[in-house]
């Protein structure tokens, strides 16, 4: 199914040994670009996390963050650098004393100094790794649900615009032969007037040659056939899903090419207005497609 590249997912779980909270945010991007915000103590698990994430996403700029709080059951793997903390407090006490102030340390602030805490042996903790991977999968599932919901809205909007463009295409197909005949008549009448002014007669053979050249210039049957095929392809891709974003974008470009050629060949006020509206709808569709994976 189609997925938007923009979405948000979250998962929080309080377990026996820790509380984990995952958040996943994403915006559109040409490639898959992942930015991790992980506690220092679990940075060694990043390759495992990335392998898990790549099962859920193909494109987009993602920011994945993890908040991790350990309880007493993990106190045996957390060590505190007493010497470094003592040096910090002694230096601050001396600094305050030199200026005639009394320094009262706030020990809670030490909790935020990550370099005072050492958790190197967590890298071999398979139980913690498995629990965090499960939490990440849950957050990514929530994220995917949000992306599916948004993609459904985008797909519905694009489909409504495709229907509108198909209606305009039918008008162009119906009107194009009439324009060709009108141009032929106008050219013949104009040539007749010029020849009459010079007291000359119309050479039917030469006239047919000119009309043949004009017919080639005005003929848009191939462009209209390809454009119809491209619109049908857009419908197929919307129903197909699965990494359709790039293919939708490419097909939109092909639609631009064909409708632009039609506008250049058919010099008609009514058709020109339709072509402008057609391009406008294509541009809106392309803006929507930029958000699809």
Automatic annotation (TrEMBL):
Question: Sorted alphabetically, which InterPro entries does this protein's record hold?
Answer: YicC-like_C, YicC-like_N, YicC/YloC-like
Keyword tags: Endonuclease, Hydrolase, Nuclease
A single GO molecular function, which one? Answer: RNA endonuclease activity
Q: Where is the signal peptide?
A: none
Positions of the Endoribonuclease YicC-like N-terminal domain: 2-155
What this protein needs as a cofactor is: a divalent metal cation
Q: Provide the Endoribonuclease YicC-like C-terminal domain boundaries.
A: 174-293
Domain of life (superkingdom): Bacteria
The answer to whether UniProt assigns keyword Phosphoprotein to this entry is no
Concerning its family, UniProt says: Belongs to the YicC/YloC family.
In Swiss-Prot or TrEMBL terms, this protein is called TIGR00255 family protein
Q: Which organism is it from?
A: Desulfovibrio litoralis DSM 11393
């Amino acid at each position: 199914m189609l997925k938007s590249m923009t979405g948000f997912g979250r998962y929080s779980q309080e377990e026996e040994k820790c509380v984990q909270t995952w958040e996943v945010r994403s915006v559109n991007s040409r490639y898959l670009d992942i930015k991790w915000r992980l506690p220092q103590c679990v940075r060694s698990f990043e390759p495992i996390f990335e392998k898990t994430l790549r099962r859920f996403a193909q494109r987009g700029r993602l920011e994945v963050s993890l908040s991790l709080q350990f309880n007493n059951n993990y106190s045996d793997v957390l060590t505190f650098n007493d010497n470094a903390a003592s040096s910090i407090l002694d230096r601050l006490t001396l600094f305050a004393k030199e200026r005639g102030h009394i320094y009262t340390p706030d020990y809670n602030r030490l909790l935020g100094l990550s370099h005072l805490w050492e958790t190197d042996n967590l890298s071999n903790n398979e139980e913690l790794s498995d629990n965090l991977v499960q939490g990440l999968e849950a957050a990514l599932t929530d994220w995917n649900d949000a992306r599916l919901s948004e993609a459904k809205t985008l797909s519905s909007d694009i489909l409504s615009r495709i229907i509108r463009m198909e209606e305009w295409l039918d008008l162009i197909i119906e009107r194009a032969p009439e324009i060709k005949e009108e141009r032929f008549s106008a050219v013949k009448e104009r040539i007749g007037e010029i020849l009459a002014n010079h007291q000359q007669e119309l050479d039917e053979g030469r006239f047919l040659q000119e009309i043949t050249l004009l017919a080639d210039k005005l003929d848009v049957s191939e462009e209209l056939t390809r454009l119809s095929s491209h619109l049908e392809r857009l419908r197929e891709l919307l129903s197909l899903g699965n990494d359709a974003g790039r293919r939708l974008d490419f097909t939109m470009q092909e639609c631009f090419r064909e409708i632009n050629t039609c506008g250049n060949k058919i010099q008609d006020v009514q058709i020109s207005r339709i072509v402008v509206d057609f391009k406008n709808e294509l541009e809106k569709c392309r803006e929507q497609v930029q958000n699809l994976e």
